[in-house]
Amino acid sequence: MATKKIAKTDAKQPAQSDKEKAEYVAKVSLMPSVNAAAVVSEYAKAFGEQDISELTAQLREKIHQVEDGDLKLCEAMLVGQANALQAIFVSLARRAVNQEYLKQYETYLRLALKAQNQSRMTLETLATIKNPPVVFARQANINQGNGNQQVNNGTPSPAARAEKNINQQNELLEVQHGGETVDGRATGATGGKDQAMATVD
Fold it and tell me: What is the pTM of this model?
């Protein structure tokens, strides 16, 4: 039985137009994983030559983990950054104290305190991720029968708070003085210098 020879054909990719190339480059340039990979490849040369494609693949995997709700990597990253910023703070603070001139001392100390502040903010972000703030939703109950009744549960308006505060102050004054309202703005007597002037009703 004769075997048929299959002719090899080079499968060539269809040529892209200039517009398609520009669209592809723009799409890739705006991808967060590619953006991050481009930056990491430049700053991570201490670990060896970086491959953009491999970095992009690794970053996509980490992005998917966060999308699925796994924040362990983010937490680890924040702890690492806080410690790195702390090391920068200590280094700059030590350099500042050894400076002879005020300008250099001030420059090093200002940079040290900036690093310290960034470390603090990083730890605050970590604390927020670990213990997210509780949000209380406001509730509005409206009577659908005639539409006249409305009950709002939540924070009172500034005007309502001010009115309540004034009423409380008046009640306290009445309690302190045996139920009599105290009015500190009573009409005063005329002064001794100008006897012709009288109080105005």
Answer: 0.55
C-alpha 112/C-alpha 108 separation (Å) is: 6
For the chain, the distance separating the N- and C-terminal CA atoms, rounded to the nearest angstrom, is 130
Give me the count of residues in the chain: 201
Average pLDDT per block of 10 residues along the chain, 201 residues long: 52 73 91 93 91 94 94 94 97 95 96 97 94 74 60 60 59 55 56 57 55
If we measure between CA atoms, which residue out of 201, 199, 200, 178 comes closest to residue 190? 199
Among 113, 76, 106, 123, CA closest to 91? 113
Name the DSSP class of 23: H
| 153 sits in which H/E element | strand 150-153
The packing angle between helices 32-43 and 52-67, to 10°, is 130
Instruction: List the domain boundaries for the chain.
Output: 22-69, 71-132
Record the tokens describing residue 110, joined without a space. Answer: 């200002």
β-pairing verdict for 150-153 and 139-142: antiparallel
Q: What is the CA radius of gyration of the chain?
A: 36
Q: Work out the burial of residue 177: count CB atoms within 10 Å of its CB; fewer than 13 is exposed, 13-18 middle, 19 or more buried.
A: exposed
Rounded Cα distance, 146 and 66, in Å: 49
Q: Which helix or strand (DSSP H or E) is residue 44 part of?
A: none
